[in-house]
Amino acid sequence: MSESPIRRGQLIVPFGVGSLYIGKDGIGMISAGLDHWYKKYDTNQLTEDVDEFKFNEWRLERRLKVNHFRRPPDYRIKKNKYEKLSEPNSYLTIPYLRFPTWSFCQFCRVLQKVGLHQQGHLECRSKTCREKGYKNQLIQVPLVMVCQNGHIEDFPWKEWCHRSTSPKCEGTMKLISSGNPGLDGQFVNCDCGKSRSLGSVLTEGKKIKENDKTITEYRLSTDLDPDNLFLCQGKELWNGSEEHKTCGQHLKGSLRSSNNIYFALHEKCIQVPSINLDIPEKLLSLMNGKLRQTINLLHKYKLELTPENLRNEAFEELEEFNDTQIINSLNNFLNIKNIDEKKDNDENQVEFDESEEKFKWPEYQLFLDNHNSNEVRVINYNIDKYNSKFHKYFKSIGIVKKLIETKALYGFTRIDMGSELRVRDHKNMLRKEQLTFTETWLPAIENSGEGIFIEFNLNTIKEFEKRSSVQERVKLFSSFNRDREPEIYKMSSRYLLLHSFSHVLINTLIYECGYGASSLQERIYCSHDPNNEMAGVLIYTAATDSEGTMGGLVRNGLPGNFEKIALKALKTSQWCSTDPVCYEIAENGGQGPNSLNMSACHNCTLVPETSCDGSFNCYLDRTLLMGKVDADDLGYFDI
Q: Cα separation of 311 and 53, whole Å?
């Protein structure tokens, strides 16, 4: 489509499958599905050595129910014309398709449509330009339409102009500007005499209740044809197909540069060394890979699962492991499989089988002690090493000198972050041809980095949660009217506190550690379950380089340094440049997407969305950190 460089990590977030991207030549494109990854640029044939890009991360494989992950390919070329390039994975590219396919001429304003696979800049082929010998370049239109199930289509210029879902007119259409600002001044005209303004195509209609759910109607769907609703046809253009599928969602007009046109759904984890599980990493990968189908069959027909039976299937691979290790690995696998079986047949299942709290529990335990392995290096300091002001509020500070983060893309949404589709449906949308389990994979990237882990004092947290003023605050937050249901465990005072502290700490660290805000990320560890109770925050940075980062962040977690930064962050959180509005709006319906924030806005608490731990800058309230003028007891800290 267009030759443009893009970093491998960006192919996971934010330019994953289904995203819109503008190449260096100015052509708008949509990232193609996984079916066409790992194909050579010159032959369009699948590379013969795709195994080079495969890797395993058993915890994430289990969560996303895939056999393995694959790194996005890097583009390798000859350094000079005399070099012989014999590498099997040379000239690999990621395919992109032209989108929008509608364009218009700046001179004659005629709208023209081309194919998804059309390459390069195109010249206007209208009658007017041909007769005058003009060779004007076509410019892609600014409008597209999207639905909440993740589909995206070209804007219906002909249908909108003729006010019909099935117009029969074959006249030439033009995009005309009347001189007024905005879309109100843009009109689509047809040779037949029909004309219509684009002023209402981006606006929402009324909200209706249907099966106990709030559905937003969009003017594009309701107003296009007075007699018929114009609904989504389920086209998956990123998979190179324009065939219709069942969808039926309302369609929303959108500028293709809009921020809400694509939200990557990704899952990430911090690698936990196998020594913590007393099971070798290689054995875990075998159980979740080559041996998984064998174990499933034996378990399904209630046949005996023994090390001997497994050795018959993979003798060479299991030769280095003893029976105890194999039995421990089997027990771990079957325990997870039992969870999977209970929920795998639930057609309405939207979320993962394992809760986020349980998934993060091994990571939380990892940071509570000292560790030194290939995957992670942690030095844990008791809070007694730090200024006495913080003894009551924190229990320990972990200096994470090395960690490995794995981030995998499993789907995407449009319009807003939420979706009622199942995780399985999201994964299926990434490719046209569905795979068997032994072949199933998702794109992922491994990043090495460093971080600071802050363990909160659970006793102080519990006292804080019992305060009547805090409980009233959370009750008020839960009472706001919302279009969709929030994540329940994130509606607690504990999560709001941890998440808000993490954000204000990131916004302070960027001035001290040498990293920009978008380079820092957070991981929130919050759980009320007595069996895996958590209250901690990890602030970290990670890069695709194998050596990770340079130590600027961990230095700020050391005794003598951390106290100054934490104190500065907390003092800063007491003031926002939009106060008193930022404080007062929290008690009058909240703010942010779906009213999921209290006292938190871009001027005080928000960070880049790529830094936020899966909450898209929601579930924040800085009042719970230091209180406010007329309610000191709302704050966890009293420093």
A: 27
> Which of the 8 DSSP states describes residue 305?
-
553 and 515 Cβ atoms separated by less than 8 Å? yes
Pick from 303, 360, 372, 292: nearest CA to 332: 292
Q: Could you identify the residue written with the tokens 């046109």?
A: 261
Round to whole Å and give the CA distance between 434 and 261: 25
Q: Reduce the DSSP state of residue 574 to 3 states and report it.
A: coil
Contact 143, 254 (CB under 8 A): yes
How many angstroms separate the CA atoms of 465 and 596, rounded? 19
User: Would you list the DSSP string of 115-156?
Assistant: -TT--S--B---HHHHHHT--PBEEE-SEEEE-TTS-EEE--
Cα-based distances in Å from 359 to 60, 69, 235, 354, 438: 9, 18, 34, 6, 23
Degrees to nearest 5, angle at CA 134 with 131 and 138: 115
Q: How confident is the model at residue 543 (pLDDT cuts 50, 70, 90)?
A: confident
State the CB neighbour count (10 A cutoff) for residue 495. 21
Torsions phi, psi for 92 (to 5 deg): -90, 135
> What average pLDDT is seen over the chain?
86
The Cα–Cα gap between 539 and 522 comes to 5
Bridge partners, 255 (sequence order): 143
Q: What is the pLDDT of residue 343?
A: 40
Going by pLDDT thresholds of 50, 70 and 90, the confidence category of residue 384 is very high
Helix (H) or strand (E) holding 28: strand 28-31
Question: CA 462, CA 285: separation in Å to the nearest integer?
Answer: 39
Backbone angles phi, psi at 28, to 5 degrees: -80, 135
Give Cα 167 to chain centroid, integer Å.
Answer: 38
DSSP for 454-508?
EEE-HHHHHHHHH-HHHHHHHHHHHTS--SSPPPGGGGSHHHHHHHHHHHHHHHH
Sequence letter at residue 287: M
Q: Which amino acid is at 30?
A: I
Other beta carbons within 10 Å of 85: 11
Instruction: Please give the span between the terminal C-alpha atoms of the chain, in angstroms, as a whole number.
Output: 58
Locus of tokens 């002023």: 199
Report the range of poorest mean pLDDT among 34-48, 337-351, 479-493: 337-351
Distances in whole angstroms, Cα of residue 289 to Cα of each of 293, 405, 438, 504, 537: 8, 21, 7, 41, 32
Q: Which residue has the tokens 């319009």?
A: 415
> What single-letter amino acid sits at 581?
V
Find out whether 518 and 434 touch, Cβ atoms under 8 Å. Answer: no
Where does the pLDDT of residue 211 fall: very low under 50, low under 70, confident under 90, or very high at 90 and above? low
Any alpha helices (H) in 33-181, and if so which ranges?
A: 58-64, 127-132, 157-162
Q: Is the pLDDT of residue 626 over 80?
A: yes
Structure token digits, residue 363: 């990571």
State the CB neighbour count (10 A cutoff) for residue 161: 24
**Token pair for residue 323?**
């029976």
> Residue 480 CA to chain centroid, in angstroms?
26
Short-list 545, 554, 560, 519, CA closest to 400: 554
pLDDT at 302: 67
Identify the residue with better confidence: 366 or 24.
366
What is the C-alpha to C-alpha distance for residues 511 and 327, in angstroms, rounded to an integer?
Answer: 50
- If you search the block for the tokens 């981006």, which residue do you land on? 202
